[in-house]
Amino acid sequence: MKTLLANGPSNLYATEMEQFGRLAGHWATRITYYPTDGSPARHVSGEWEFGYALEGRAVLDVWRWPGREELLASGRAPDQECGLCVRIWDPRLQLWRFTFHGTAHGDLVHMYARQIDDEIVMERAAGGDLVRWTFTDITAAAFHWRNERSTDGGHTWRLDQEADARRREATQEPG
Amino acid sequence: MTAAVELIAAPWNLGLRPPAPGREPGTWRAPQALLSAGLEARLRPARTVELDRPPYDFDPQPATRIRNGVTIREQTLRLGEAVRAALAASRFPVVLGGDCSILLGCLLGARSQGRCGLVHLDGHSDFRHPGNYDPGSTLGSVAGMDLALATGRGELLLTHWPEVGRPLVADEDVIQIGDREHEEIPPVTRFTAQEIQQIGIARLGERVISRLEQRGLDRVWLHLDLDVLDERVLPAVDSPGRPGLDFSQLSELVSTLAGTGRVAGLDVAVYDPELDPDGAYAAPIVDCLASALAPLATMEATRA
């Protein structure tokens, strides 16, 4: 599968590709879940790797938890996630088309995304709700991600999940 | 008025629900019906641009609860570019729909030249958004949501746009004219069909112009959903009703507004030739538009 990954963005939409492409590399994450039943928030470590793909026309990422420090010697359990995200800039829509393919629970999620001011906002309609995944506070060394849901058409949002990401040093990346 | 007309045909029906299972709404036929009824000869446009007819999808599209939402975004960008090009050529775009979803592309194109208000002539407020109905139970139809979407309410897919961002138009820069509804009132300046019956077209025109002056709006887009007409005058629309304007009142109002020089362009929506099997209504619609826009039809200087 040497044709899957790419070293950099395509010249076709280089400016747009950079929106997600700047996240290329390995990140350690601290993921927090906020249960809807009011029970206490729970935390888990994770890893997130981004990179260009498909001759630089797509940005992929792999979302995993737990992180390597908390991973048991026996390996990742079947219900622990190792999922693939695919992002392709669609010039006809002037939006990113996004899909998440989860291996733990068979999740398949479609979303649309745009950079809005300093954030990258991804959104999908799920039944009567709107779900947003937002990348924010993006620097070379860190970013924040949050997963929110609105049941009133976007007037108010409930935080379901968030992640703080810190870039790993190159020497920390798995071989 | 200083610009010649450019006609832009937007033959689509994407924002309407199917009138029967497996049957597409017929508004996509309206541009050709109006052109065949002599609109081109009457308005003498500098140019006529005909956009392609997009495919109508009966099934939900991915990650949206808006009927044909993805296709409407693509068509909105195309129509926006057509309107932008017409304005850049110093022409007066007249967009022939189609259903009310064409409004988004019209505003997007108009915004390419800066702030632009909206005069929304419509027998309905078209203000449905996920905050006032349950999109989980039914797909939303943009023809009933266009004012909500234009003012930034609803899915990102149809509320965030290149260059402009969100919204296409601020609530304060919208004037809604002619709706007969009592629920989900949009927070905009509004003249209902019943109020228009009481005050008449002349006073309505004065009040609209006064509001434009108050807001400092030198440019507005004029959206003309033909269901603002009384159903006894024009029944060949998706959701006819009464009371409403007659053709002469509509012509007088459009003429008054266009005469201010503040109208950047207009769109005409929701005439359905399939609900007009004898073709009886295309001619009066053409007469109405031609009469209202007569000063533009005499413009020769900027023709290509």
UniProtKB/TrEMBL annotation, chain A:
Spell out the residue ranges making up region: Disordered: 154-175
Q: Which superkingdom, per the lineage?
A: Bacteria
Protein name per the record: DUF1579 domain-containing protein
Q: Please tell me the species this chain comes from.
A: Streptomyces sparsogenes DSM 40356
UniProtKB/TrEMBL annotation, chain B:
Annotated InterPro entries: Ureohydrolase, Ureohydrolase_dom_sf
**Lineage: superkingdom:** Bacteria
What does UniProt give as GO cellular component? cytoplasm
Cite a single Pfam family from the UniProt record.
Arginase
What keywords sit in the KW lines? Hydrolase, Manganese, Metal-binding
Q: What's an example of a GO molecular-function annotation for this chain?
A: manganese ion binding
Family of this protein: Belongs to the arginase family.
User: What name does this protein carry?
Assistant: Arginase/agmatinase/formiminoglutamase
Its taxonomic path starts at:
Bacteria, Bacillati, Actinomycetota, Actinomycetes, Kitasatosporales
